[in-house]
Specification:
Helix content is 43%, strand content 26%. A hairpin with a 7-residue loop joins strand 18 and strand 19. The longest helix has 41 residues. Helix 3 packs antiparallel against helix 7 and helix 4 packs antiparallel against helix 5. The chain has twelve helices and 22 strands. A six-stranded antiparallel beta barrel has the order 8-17-21-19-18-22. It is of the alpha+beta class.
Length: 522
């Protein structure tokens, strides 16, 4: 039975017994020489068969590793590292072929965890791999070998020669991998008839670089031919196992017949049309700003000097807490002066009364009453020179943070205090969405900076007049928010959704675009 040698393609024929008898009929020396030749040929055949077994075992082991890969990139790296080790190459790169074209993308390089696709080496690898795909499709060349020592120079090897020049290597071997069987064409060249019977469109390609020309390059060619289908099938299976739902659907559609694709398109269109009629929640999105429900103002009780402000903006305060204090030095001097004037007026009144001068007594009495009123006012100011908070809350605004000796006038607002138990959210509704907003609708708010905290409320009021905020014309709707935990603060912005009822999914998805288009065409 003949044994095919993979390196040369020649056949070693078993020697028939009658031929053996004829050859052994010579001299003893001739018989010895013939026996030595047959022994050498048998040893060569055995070594060649042993190498084929090792190559087959290596391919089987590599397929097993590919099947155990969890990601497609990991599978490509496994192939690159295994080929580098088995072939004794310096570098092996693996790329995937874009379906229907000769474009190749490098997926992995041996012993490299991540690759830079924009680097010159990666681009040269991709060009060489694309060149190998073109030669496979047009010339039915299973492998592309570029060796400067070779006497025969094949066509379309410029990209491989540039790759050797960039990497500083001496030999390059590229081999496409395919995953499906099926006859494509029947070339007249007998050398490629066997290839025509198993040829299909490549799915991947690998390129190996050697710094020195391998001594057994013909064997590597055989190995490349032998691993084309198994590795291609394994990578295709790994790719299908790792692909997402959309990629799987796209592959199924592309592999289907034209009539099947038409039925799938018709069925998908009907399914989408039915899905567009399914009612889903219509939620209007907008931005809201938290504001206090009520506010209290701490004002200057009289003209004078502010002795000290005790709190700053943003601090929490309680009922009766001292916020600021007026300077009492000037008041004390005024009280002492008015008190002395009042005592003199009283003595003057007593003298006029003793002398019996009624008119002078009455004038002195009026002066005494006036000074008594002034003294009472000054004493009242002195008693109320401390400014305290009338509610529990937070200082929203303070004009004088820890200020001292600042002159103020009666009624000047020194601080603004607001409670935090209840806040009001002002929803900025776009004019196009105002028709969908009604009183009593449920609102969900997610404050900026705290996406895990969600609060809900209902719309209390909708203002009829629009306002301009941040250059946008909006309508304001208010929602009362419970904030007993104190996690919300006035001034916070929130991403807000208003539950505007149920509408058909098609209307929810496309009504904004349709309304805008209709408005532009009018």
């Amino acid at each position: 039975m003949p044994v095919i040698t993979p390196s040369s393609g020649t056949a070693f024929q078993a020697i028939p017994p009658e031929s053996l008898t004829a050859q052994d009929s010579g001299t003893p020396q001739h018989r010895i020489d013939s026996a030595q030749v047959r022994s050498t040929e048998s040893a060569s055949e055995f070594a060649e068969l042993q190498w084929q077994i090792d190559a087959t075992a290596a391919i089987a082991e590599l397929m097993s590793k590919i099947a155990s890969a969890r990601r497609l990139d990991e599978a490509h790296l496994i192939v690159a590292n295994a080929l580098r080790e088995f072939l004794g190459a310096d570098v092996v790169a693996v790329g995937t072929v874009n379906p229907g074209s000769s474009l190749v993308r490098v997926r992995s390089v041996s012993d490299v965890s991540s690759i830079d696709e924009s680097s010159q080496v990666s681009q040269q690898f991709e060009q060489a791999m694309s060149e190998s795909i073109v030669r496979f499709r047009e010339q039915l060349a299973r492998t592309t070998v570029v060796d400067p020592d070779s006497e025969h120079v094949a066509l379309m090897q410029l990209a491989h020669e540039r790759l050797l020049s960039v990497t500083g290597t001496q030999c390059a071997v590229s081999c496409p991998l395919f995953s499906q069987l099926g006859p494509q064409q029947t070339p007249s060249d007998p050398e490629h008839r066997e290839l025509s019977a198993t040829q299909s469109d490549p799915v991947a390609v690998w390129t190996a670089l050697f710094r020195q020309r391998p001594t057994e390059l013909d064997r590597w060619k055989y190995f490349a031919n032998a691993c084309q289908q198994p590795l291609g099938e394994s990578l295709a299976v790994a790719g299908r196992a790792c692909e997402g739902p959309l990629a799987r659907l796209r592959r199924v559609v592309s592999e289907s017949s034209a009539w099947t694709r038409k039925k799938m398109v018709l069925g998908g269109s009907l399914a989408i049309a039915l899905a567009m009629t399914i009612p889903i929640p219509h939620r209007v999105g907008c931005v809201s700003v938290l504001q206090p429900v009520e506010q209290r103002f701490a004002v200057a009780p009289h003209d004078g000097i502010l002795e000290q402000a005790m709190v700053r903006a943003g601090e929490q305060v309680h009922t009766g807490q001292l916020l600021a204090e007026m300077d009492a030095t000037d008041l004390r001097l005024q009280i002492a002066d008015v008190t002395a004037q009042k005592e003199r007026a009283e003595k003057k009144r007593d003298l006029h009364r003793a002398s019996g001068d009624a008119a002078s007594t009455q004038l002195a009495e009026l002066e005494t009453d006036e000074l008594a009123a002034q003294l009472a006012l000054l004493e009242h100011r002195a008693a109320h020179r401390q400014i305290v908070s009338s509610i529990d809350g937070i200082v929203l605004r303070s004009e004088l943070d820890e200020a001292r000796g600042v002159p103020v006038r009666t009624g000047d607002v020194l601080m603004q205090v607001a409670p935090l138990e209840t806040l009001r959210a002002e929803l900025e509704i776009a004019p196009a969405d105002l028709a969908h907003i009604k009183l009593g609708q449920t609102v969900s708010l997610v404050p900026d900076g705290n996406p895990l905290h969600r609060v809900q409320g209902t719309i209390d009021t909708i203002r009829q007049a629009s306002e301009v905020r941040e250059g946008r014309n909006v309508f304001l709707a208010t929602v009362t928010i419970d904030n007993h935990d104190g996690r919300l603060r006035p001034g916070m912005k929130s991403r807000t959704k208003v539950d505007a009822g149920y509408r058909a999914s098609g209307w929810v998805l496309f009504h904004s675009a349709i309304e805008k288009t209709y408005g532009m065409l009018r």
